[in-house]
């Protein structure tokens, strides 16, 4: 807890020098020699795409707009978004607790960074997101960001006038808190007289986590300078995938010694990819000897965002703004039966549960055992009891007719035998009390362990070398697909058609809207089209499960129109009883549950080289969806939300 509070304090403490632009920066300058250190020791990434994918997106958005999107994706958002669990706490109480943590730690850690320069965690609120004007939002100035996007951006700017932590002023979102960040910052890495600083090279995924506020952990370190000792100040750079014979790879063997010279692997490619400075928590030999732990304590970052790991667990949840809006789009009501088809890690599931005051029934399904456990853990932390979890492939969400008949027969047999049936709906018989089952298993396990312990108390335990090697591999590589981390997960054979009032399909996607992102070359035109086919199959399942008069919400975290607008086009053409729900900001009853914050969707189509034409939205439909553009003034991840109302299926 102390470590978590220190990370949170440091993230907020360092928000100064906010004169630099968040969105616009010059192109990377690859140096072939040592040259000017400022050209090398900086953060100026260039996102690489598959050429065909880049052409596809350039035609969809326009080349200039897509270039801005690519740049925006390499930067984290300039603020963190916190969702308060209103069933346990209140926004004002959470703000007071976070500010108390800052005040408590200010005396302990002082107000200096590693270079000894004083910082002000308050920052300059007037410089928040000021560099992206509406006329720069799209290639066509006539389509400049306006309406909800502009209103929310103005509200966001004003939120930080009174401090680094503020409540969202948008109607219906007053339980959402914004925590201001800052960056990119210029860092003095200590390059003197052609003597490069000591350096730690991390993997691309590790770097993306560091840019979001995490520390550098041992598994993420790829290479290191020689003679790095515990306590040394080191520069942290990124090894981004490069083209190799079999595809893409970092090209650096873990444990490589870096000399800071031209002979280092990918020396030029790492130019402009320095993400900060930190203190080595282990020596070089220690970093590559142990399997876990913090390798570098980041104390001077290019982007300074607070870390919320282990802070106020159960009271707050760090969540992207579009994900919170998605839960509102579902518009849950008390007592309803709601399905979250791809629920892990549970952020949207718990947000829906809180909106319906934990009164009703939410079925949270995912095909991964361990991910279902994550949903269970989060629901328990937040004290939510209306969530029932199942392991279920979304492509098999609709129960087959034979299985439904078997369940009905089981219900009749139990009634004939005088057993009490809790629900008239045979499908609900599969909902078990997971907590009581887990408790019974836990007691049984304890009894078994005690018996075995008594029987073998005097026996010598032998562990083979093979078992030791196997355990080491598991620690290094994770539990693997066929091994779970423990805990009970109920399997489901699916659900009866028309058995849910509302269904959320937050579909697995290409995730090309997530940021910060430092590499995008793995996606091809074929893989993007395959994502769309997979999502249509899941949508076919979702349509069958929601009743007439219900609501179906579809969302993704990608900028790919083939997974967004093309899916909407397919849904409206294939299912005539579906219609896009209107966004009515004038209705008091709907404003609180349907905040219109995102921008319009894309209208038109795209013809692929093989002749296939991908249809998107038609004129008049673009305002009935919400597209969150990562290059817009909102500074969110790329996201898409479509809300469908379900008419009568009889017609």
UniProtKB/TrEMBL annotation:
GO biological process, one term: RNA methylation
Domain of life: Eukaryota
Active site: 557 (nucleophile)
Domain SAM-dependent MTase RsmB/NOP-type span(s) in chain numbering: 249-647
Amino-acid positions noted as binding S-adenosyl-L-methionine in the UniProt annotation, renumbered to this chain: 342-348, 366, 393, 506
Keywords for the protein's UniProt record, in alphabetical order: Methyltransferase, RNA-binding, S-adenosyl-L-methionine, Transferase
InterPro entries per record: MeTrfase_RsmB-F_NOP2_cat, MeTrfase_RsmB-F_NOP2_dom, PUA, PUA-like_sf, PUA_sf, RCMT, RsmB/NOL1/NOP2-like_CS, SAM-dependent_MTases_sf
GO terms for MF: RNA binding; RNA methyltransferase activity
Protein's UniProt keywords contain Methyltransferase: yes
Tagged with keyword Nucleus: no
Family membership: Belongs to the class I-like SAM-binding methyltransferase superfamily. RsmB/NOP family.
Protein name: RNA (C5-cytosine) methyltransferase
Organism name: Trema orientale (Charcoal tree)
């Amino acid at each position: 807890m102390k470590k978590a509070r220190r990370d949170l304090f440091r993230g907020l403490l360092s928000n100064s020098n906010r004169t630099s632009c968040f969105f616009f920066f010059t192109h990377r300058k690859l140096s072939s020699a040592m040259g000017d250190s400022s050209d090398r020791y900086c953060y100026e990434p260039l996102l690489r795409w598959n050429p065909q994918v880049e052409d596809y997106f350039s035609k969809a958005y326009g080349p200039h707009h897509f270039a801005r999107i690519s740049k925006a994706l390499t930067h984290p958002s300039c603020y963190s978004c916190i969702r308060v669990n209103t069933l346990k706490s209140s926004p004002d109480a959470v703000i007071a607790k976070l500010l108390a943590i800052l005040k408590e730690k200010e005396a302990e850690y002082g107000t200096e960074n590693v270079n000894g320069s004083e910082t002000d965690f308050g920052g300059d609120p007037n410089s928040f997101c000021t560099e992206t004007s509406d006329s720069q939002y799209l290639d066509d100035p006539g389509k400049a960001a306006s309406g909800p996007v502009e209103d929310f951006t103005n509200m966001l700017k004003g939120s930080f006038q009174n401090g680094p932590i503020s409540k969202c002023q948008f109607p219906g979102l007053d339980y959402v808190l914004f925590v201001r960040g800052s960056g990119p910052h210029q860092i003095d890495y200590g390059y003197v007289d052609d003597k490069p600083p000591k350096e730690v090279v991390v993997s691309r995924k590790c770097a993306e986590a560091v840019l979001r506020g995490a520390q550098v952990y041992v598994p993420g370190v790829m290479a290191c300078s020689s003679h790095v000792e515990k306590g040394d100040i080191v520069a942290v750079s990124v090894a981004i995938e490069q083209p190799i014979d079999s595809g893409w790879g970092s090209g650096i063997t873990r444990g490589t010694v870096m000399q800071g010279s031209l002979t280092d692997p990918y020396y030029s490619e790492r130019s402009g990819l320095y993400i900060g400075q930190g203190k080595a928590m282990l020596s070089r030999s220690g970093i590559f000897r142990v399997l876990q732990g913090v390798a570098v304590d980041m104390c001077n970052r290019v982007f300074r965002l607070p870390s919320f790991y282990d802070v106020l667990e159960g009271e707050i949840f760090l969540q992207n703004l579009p994900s919170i809006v998605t839960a509102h789009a579902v518009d849950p009501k008390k007592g309803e039966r709601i399905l979250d088809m791809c629920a892990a890690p549970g952020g949207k599931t718990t947000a829906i549960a809180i909106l319906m005051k934990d009164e009703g029934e939410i079925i949270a399904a995912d095909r991964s055992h361990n991910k279902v456990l994550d949903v269970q853990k989060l629901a328990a932390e937040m004290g939510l009891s209306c969530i029932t979890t199942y392991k279920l492939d979304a492509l098999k969400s609709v129960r087959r007719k034979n299985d439904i008949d078997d369940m009905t027969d089981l219900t009749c047999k139990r009634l004939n035998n005088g057993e009490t049936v809790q629900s008239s709906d045979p499908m609900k018989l599969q909902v078990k009390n997971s907590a009581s089952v887990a408790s019974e298993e836990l007691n049984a396990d304890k009894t078994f362990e005690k018996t075995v312990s008594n029987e073998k108390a005097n026996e010598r335990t032998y562990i083979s070398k093979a078992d030791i090697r196997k355990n080491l591999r598991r620690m290094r590589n994770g539990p693997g697909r066929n091994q779970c981390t423990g805990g009970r997960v109920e399997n489901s054979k699916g659900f009866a058609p028309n058995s849910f009032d509302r269904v959320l399909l937050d579909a697995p996607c290409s995730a090309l809207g997530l940021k910060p992102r430092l590499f995008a070359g793995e996606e091809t035109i074929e893989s993007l089209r395959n994502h769309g086919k997979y999502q249509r199959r899941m949508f076919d399942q979702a349509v069958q499960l929601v009743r007439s008069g219900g609501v179906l919400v579809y969302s993704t975290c990608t900028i790919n129109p083939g997974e967004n607008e093309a899916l909407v086009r397919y849904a409206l053409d294939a299912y005539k009883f579906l219609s896009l729900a209107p966004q009515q900001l004038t209705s008091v009853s709907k404003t609180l549950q349907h905040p219109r914050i995102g921008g319009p969707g894309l209208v038109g189509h795209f013809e692929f080289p093989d002749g296939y034409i991908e249809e998107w939205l038609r004129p008049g439909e673009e305002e009935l969806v919400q597209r969150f553009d990562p290059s817009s003034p909102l500074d969110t991840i790329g996201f898409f939300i479509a809300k469908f109302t379900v008419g009568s299926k009889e017609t």
